[in-house]
């Protein structure tokens, strides 16, 4: 049976669900329980499974051009994906992972290094510092949890979307705080002043 799903990235979907839950309740209450009904993706898959369809009946779905990466990704080791992507770029000169999620004509990296670089550096520093610790002990230590908090905050697309202004200042401050926690856990401390992110951002 057909299933209609709204396209939306996780962030925007989360904003809607978190800020307007009452509207969702009203909408679901108004939808009929016969004929066209509402259900989420998991419920739909359970429904068709109950109807007798097996998993191998579904058409495989993957992002456009992702198969090119699998063509060269033959091992699962540190840096294997990066090496595979470099080989893909050599064979397919037009290959890019830097397009927007809902368009193919915009590059969301070039020209935005001012905000993207701190985010990428924070991500790399976090994994370099804590990956082994997380593997052994999970998110047990306070520095790891605090750094993860700022890393996850930095990942919102709004910071990149606006490009300049107060939002990017917030993003840079979030990245700075994350890096400071990582550096402190390694014995070095940043002395740069704090923006009042707590007052202005965490409403």
Shape: extended
Number of domains: 3
Work out the helicity level: 55-70%
What is the N-to-C succession of helices and strands? Answer: HHHHHHHHHH
Distance from N terminus to C terminus (CA atoms, Å) equals: 44 Å
- Provide the residue-averaged pLDDT: 78
Radius of gyration equals: 22 Å
The low-confidence runs, each spanning 5 or more residues with pLDDT under 50, are: 188-203
> How much of the sequence is in beta strands?
under 5%
In total, the number of strands is 0
- Tally of individual helices: 10
Describe the sheet with the most strands: none
Structural class by helix and strand composition:
mainly alpha
Give a quick precis of the structure.
Helix content is 58%, strand content 0%.
Descriptive notes:
With 203 residues, the protein is mainly α. It folds into 3 domains: 10-57, no CATH class; 64-97, no CATH class; 113-200. It is 58% helix and 0% strand. It has helices at 10-19, 21-30, 41-50, 66-72, 80-91, 113-137, 142-154, 157-162, 166-185, 197-200. It is extended and about 60 Å long. Mean pLDDT is 78; it is low at 188-203.
């Amino acid at each position: 049976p057909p299933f209609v799903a709204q396209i939306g990235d996780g962030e925007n979907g989360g904003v809607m669900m978190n800020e307007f839950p009452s509207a969702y309740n009203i909408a679901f209450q108004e939808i009929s329980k016969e004929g066209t009904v509402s259900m989420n993706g998991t419920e739909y898959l359970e429904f068709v499974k109950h109807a007798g369809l097996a998993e191998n009946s579904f058409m495989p779905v993957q992002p456009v051009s992702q198969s090119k990466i699998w063509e060269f990704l033959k091992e699962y080791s540190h840096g294997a994906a990066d090496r595979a992507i470099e080989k893909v770029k050599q064979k397919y000169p037009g290959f890019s992972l830097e397009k927007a999620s809902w368009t193919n004509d915009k590059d969301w990296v070039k020209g935005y290094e001012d905000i993207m670089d701190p985010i990428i550096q924070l991500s790399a520093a976090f994994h370099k510092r804590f990956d082994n610790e997380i593997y052994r002990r999970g998110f047990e230590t306070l520095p790891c949890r605090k750094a993860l908090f700022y890393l996850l905050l930095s990942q919102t697309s709004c910071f990149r979307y606006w490009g300049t202004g107060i939002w990017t200042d917030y993003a840079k401050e979030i990245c700075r705080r994350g890096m400071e926690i990582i550096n402190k856990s390694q014995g070095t401390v940043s002395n740069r002043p704090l923006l009042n992110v707590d007052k202005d951002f965490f409403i």
